[in-house]
Design brief:
Rossmann fold, globular, 4 strands, 4-stranded parallel sheet
Length: 230
């Protein structure tokens, strides 16, 4: 976009998307959440072309991955300040600002921010849209015949293969899968997972076509939710 694409006095719906820069085990790149977020945005834009998506925030709340090289984060307080100042920047042109994330570590802060700052930007509606869906999870569980990964396992690898298989690896069949209950209970995944993976499915079920299906399901559901908001 160019600044001249905005109509004088116009008010728009903006989306602030967030990803992360954090370890995703030995098979996925550090930017996995951001790559997934961007792919989902591409799908939503085709369905809702009047919405303006900001660039995905790549460094966010990821301190739970401390100890794994390449993980980079900012604090809850810093992220709250950054989001607030972005909203202030958009305020003159916005009628609505929607927060969304493909990184589980951002859910709490974005959900809380939308509630606590509801009246902070005069005349602007502030919303949070949930990316997770029980319906999508149920469809995925049916296909893979077991639980969905909490982090860097079957479903995320499948989604990344659909997005860019040149930067994602397929696990060897003999690579061990460990059952890890509540991997984020201590907010420090290295306490319970040596390789950073948290996936309780007993087998590796990684498939590019599965990843494409999951992405399309998420895009369709999110588009419907956002459409209902606006």
């Amino acid at each position: 976009m160019k600044t001249t694409d905005f109509k004088e006095g116009g008010k728009y719906t903006f989306v602030i998307p967030t990803g992360s820069t954090e370890q995703h085990g030995p098979f996925l790149p550090l930017g996995t959440d951001s790559f997934i977020q961007d792919r989902i945005i591409e799908g939503i834009e085709k369905r809702l072309p009047d919405i303006i998506f900001l660039p995905t925030m790549d460094i966010t709340c990821s301190q739970e991955h401390e100890g794994f090289a390449g993980s980079v984060w900012i604090s809850y307080t810093t992220m709250e300040l950054v989001i607030r100042e972005i909203c202030q920047s958009l305020h003159p042109y916005a009628k609505r600002i929607i927060l969304m994330t493909a990184h589980g570590g951002n859910v709490e802060i974005l959900r809380d921010f939308a509630k606590t700052h509801q009246n902070a930007f005069d005349g602007v509606e502030l919303l949070y849209v949930e990316m997770n869906s029980e319906e999508v999870d149920m469809k995925t569980r049916e296909i893979i015949g077991g639980p969905i990964d909490d982090h860097a396992g079957n479903t995320e690898i499948s989604m990344m293969l659909a997005i860019d298989e040149t930067i994602s690896l397929v696990p060897q069949n003999d690579y061990p899968k460990k059952s890890i209950q509540e991997p984020f209970k201590t907010n420090h995944i290295k306490d319970v997972s040596e390789d950073g993976i948290a996936d309780n499915h007993p087998q590796w079920i990684v498939d590019k076509n599965l990843g494409e299906k999951i992405i399309n399901w998420i895009v369709e559901e999110l588009s419907q939710r956002i459409r209902s908001m606006i």
